[in-house]
Every structure is written in C-alpha cells, then in structure tokens.
Amino acid sequence: MNDLFSLERGDAPLMISIPHLGTHIPESLRGLYTDVALTVADTDWHLDRLLYAFARSLGARVSRYVIDLNRPPNDESLYPRQTTTSLCPTETFRGAPLYRDGCAPDADERTRRVATYWQPYHDTLRDELKRLRAQHRNVLLWEAHSIASVLPRLFDGKLPDLNIGTQDGRTAAPSVQDVVQHAAAAGPFTWIANGRFKGGFITRHFGTPHTACMRYNWRCVNPAT
C-alpha cells in the first residue's frame, strides 16, 4: 500500500480495479474545496469491504474529487451529449460546487494531477495485467463501482441494482458476457447490460478481447438518499 492506492497481488486470472474507492484529499489541496466536497459523498463506498473482500484488487486512495482515474487524461467526454463528470470534476453528482470561488484547477494543475495521481495508477494496472497474462492464457479485468440509484442530473428514473458495461460488447468476448449476464439473471437483483453505463476509460482502454484481456464494468447501486 502507498499514499495513492492499495494493491493486493494474486495469481488468479482476475484483476479487480476500484478507481473511485478513495476518500483522501491531500492536505495541500483541502483549503481549495467547499465543505460539501470534503464529505467526498460521491465515493464508490464499501466495495473493498463488502463485495470484493474475497479477491485481490487495485484500489485508489485519493478521492475522485481530486482526479477521476476512470477518465481519459485529455478529458475527452466518454458520453457525448450527456451530463457526466470530468477528469478533475468541479461539481458533485448533484451539481453542487466542489471548489471555493476562484480555486478550481487550471490546465497546469490538471496536468500535475495526471502525472502525480492518474499515471501511477494506470502504470500499475498495466504492469499487473502484463504479469498475469504471462501466467494465464486469458485474464479478466473487473472494474468495480457503486453509485446512488437516483441521480436526476446524470440519468432519468432509477438505476437497476446491477449495471454491466462492456462498451456494447467491444471489451469482452461474447461467451464471457453471456456467463456474466446469465449469473445476473439468475439472482434476485434487477440488472441491465450496456444501459446508462457502458464502461469508463479503463474499460475502453484495457478491454481488448483479441489480446485475451477482457474487461467488465460492474456497477452496483446504493440506496438513494
């Protein structure tokens, strides 16, 4: 474990990435944020302790309010024409400002955060996948998230309990997607595949079935408050 992320290494052909697990805002930045921001309310809560305690994983420690590790470094929108969050977000999911007046990060600060926080996480993820693929013919990268079930600013209505994303089938082999969807259908929870959430940058960048690295975005919902 270090100040940026925790890494538990295993030898199974499974890598779990939890990029929005972190709650830490560095002391040098805390004075820039609003009181609302310091509650880090949009964290993907509890995933390491409740859902994935059985597995080896890579989990962020720095809050997504500092930098979103699941966005491209050039901040290109993953969902054009839809409301979404950015690389260095300036608003909460509900639209409340994260920064005090005049304190939002400029281009130089965003570049610094990419180098300081974003790049080490992605370098580690790449290296771990390379290590596992040297041991196994196929490796599954499982991207774990949780989110409130009702967020009118981001989507209409209420999300299903389980939200599976493979960028419309481009980041996982059909046979693997069939197994995951069959398991979801056999359980007690509502679910959807490639609905509002199809997978973020990590899904789209690392999910390459033709090179035997299949990538799933699996988003569980928290009860709306």
From TrEMBL:
Root EC class: hydrolase
Domain of life: Bacteria
Coiled-coil intervals: none
Keywords from the named record: Hydrolase
SUPFAM superfamilies, sorted: Zn-dependent exopeptidases (SSF53187)
InterPro entries recorded: HutG_amidohyd, N-FG_amidohydro
Secretion signal span: none
One protein family per Pfam: FGase
One GO MF term: N-formylglutamate deformylase activity
E.C. no: 3.5.1.68
Protein name: WGS project CAFE00000000 data, contig bkir_c182
